[in-house]
Amino acid sequence: MAGCAVHGGCPSDYIAIAISVIAMIMLLTRSILPFLVHKVPRTKGSGFWLLMIQILGSFNFLLSIVLSFNFVTFKRRHWWQSCYIWAVWFQDPFGFGLLLNCRIVQAYQLYYLFVRRRLPPIRSCILLPVILLPWIALSAFFHAMKPLNARCHMRSWWITPFICRDILYIAILAGITWALHHIEFRFHEFKDLLKGIFVSAACIGMWVAAFILNEVREDTPWLQIASRFLLLVIASILVLAFFSMSISQPLLSQVSLRRREPQRFETMGWALAIPDSDLQQRGPTPELDLNEPLEKLLMNRRFRQSFMAFANSCLAGESVHFYDEVHELGKIPVNDSVRRVYMARHIIETYIDSGVAMEVNISHRTKKEILGTSDLAHPDLFSGAINEVVQLMKMNLVKDYWSSMFFMKFKEESQTKSGDQGLVEQVIGWDSSPRFNSVHDADDPF
Questions:
Q1: How many other C-beta atoms are found inside a 10 Å radius of the C-beta of residue 194?
Q2: At 256, is the secondary structure helix, strand, or coil?
Q3: Contacts of 143 (CB under 8 A, 6+ apart)
Q4: CA atoms within 13 Å, Cβ hemisphere of 44
Q5: Is pLDDT larger for residue 383 or for residue 243?
Q6: What pLDDT, on a 0 to 100 scale, did the predictor assign at position 292?
Q7: Using CA atoms, how far apart are residues 280 and 147, in angstroms rounded to an integer?
Q8: In the chain, N or C: fewer CB atoms in 10 Å?
Q9: Any residues with CB less than 8 A from the CB of 178 and at least 6 apart, and which?
Q10: Which residue has the higher pLDDT, 436 or 401?
């Protein structure tokens, strides 16, 4: 026992490694399967890249524990096997540091979106390195002092600054989360943050206890083996807890420790339960005067779908898709600020941000006004952009649409549906049934 306690390779060590491998497989499965099986679209926003960074941080964290705490027997002959590479850098700033700071960035985004109702002033690609700098500085100082012994162990007084820093960052995460407690999120964001805080704090407490026992009591073989086993197992649970993520991305994968209901939403309006936001128009279609201006015609759902199909065939569908999403946003009551922020953020990330696949052609001034808005729930947030987009559609698409097969098909289907509706009304006899006459307009719940 004394030999494997020092050099590694105990049966419990391999069991702990197997548990950590299973944890990583679960992370990869829960993150990749929605994109492969359910064909969930991948966005270029921070939500996707924070997800990937958390996977990288989880892998670094678990691998660094395996290599720095002698779970397997090997001689440190090369520079990349150094204790300082794995125990100081990969385990700290590029392992656990990435995990915790990604959660802080996500909480910071939610705070600005739903409490301040504006886009975060600092982009995630800048904020994450900035808040990671203290971790890098502490690791650099620790590396320069070189306090580790041959077994990658440090003295107890060196452990104190690391523990204090971790507690400080968890307190920051808890403070931001508390500022969000009054927001009625629709996609479990607040519950995920709370779960991450509570589970992570408990795991860190147990992990610190095992770490201290492993570092201080080097002369007790069984204690070394047991604490080493607990260290890796608890770390595996820790990365799973940190990986619970929704962060207002209902069209992305909903990753958590428990299985959720399938999120088969094809549009954001559908995900937010906006009335009549599914892909098919239901109920009778109002009469449509084709001599009306384009702004009036686009208010009709079936005309908009036909015009959208034509625009897609011309590889210019982003303008109509943008109009459709803003039209859905207009159905949300002005006092429902949470759903309006969800929808506005989705529209900005899909159509307004520079470089996105569906970016609409609007002026720089209009784009700047939208991105710099102080109220994402404002009812006129996209009014200027809609006016510009409609003018572009009038110049580039409308004339060709009137002579296209898409318009011919729409006109034929409209005439057929209108005839069928009149026949149904004649057969049923809307005014002859006492059951229907007993329901007045003011009492009709539909």
A1: 16
A2: coil
A3: 84, 88, 89
A4: 12
A5: 383
A6: 82
A7: 67
A8: C
A9: none
A10: 401
